[in-house]
Automatic annotation (TrEMBL):
GO molecular function, one term: biliverdin reductase [NAD(P)H] activity
Pfam families assigned: NAD_binding_10 (PF13460)
Listed name of the protein: NAD-dependent epimerase dehydratase family
Family according to the record: Belongs to the avfA family.
Entry keyword annotation includes Lipoprotein: no
Keyword terms: Signal
Domain NAD(P)-binding: 7-203
The species this protein was found in: Pyrrhoderma noxium
InterPro entries linked: NAD(P)-bd_dom (IPR016040), NAD(P)-bd_dom_sf (IPR036291), Polyketide_Oxido-like (IPR051606)
Taxonomy, superkingdom: Eukaryota
Amino acid sequence: MHILVLGGTGAIGLLLIRELLTAEHTVVVYARSPEKLPEDITSNPSVTIVKGELNDEEKVVSALQGAHAVVSALGPSASQPPGTPIAKGYSVFITSMRKAGVPRLIALGTASIPDEHDKKDLFFWTAKQGVKYGARHAYQDIVAVGETISKEGSDLAWTIARVPFLTNGETREYQTGYLGDGKRTTTLTRVGYAAFIVDELKNNEWVKKRPFLSVP
């Protein structure tokens, strides 16, 4: 498949691009600062690089031509500015995907995004409160991401892959479920997230769902 990647210059994004290439996909990296990409990616003939902003609809529509899906490693930071910029970027992308005929979106989320299948989980409830009050703009943006994708992208085949604390561990193993199901753990490797994306592109098991990922 031909896949457009958001957030490709970050730690998760680089792993995601490499996983997609290993799985023999072709990749468009849409990035504000593509100069951050390493040489092994920029020189790969299966990679196209497009420099652009999330809110540049004309450029986004152009970059989406021929794509089968959009996958994202975008997430807010502790120093996130106000105004939910990532959620607003997704709004532009959803409109652009519709115009370009791209049906599939897999996005990064966190436990701050609620799901009707979640049950009470003291650990993540406490962590969520810490983010809500300690990194307010990041919390507002990621919650808005969940709302934007599920509401504005209601006609798309979307998946929001919610993650716990991310680590640089080497295991690619992950488990999927919901908060409070008795199976979840508190971490996930970044390569585990990338592995889930590649698997979900193939299997489409979590369309219009918000699975919670963690290491087994």
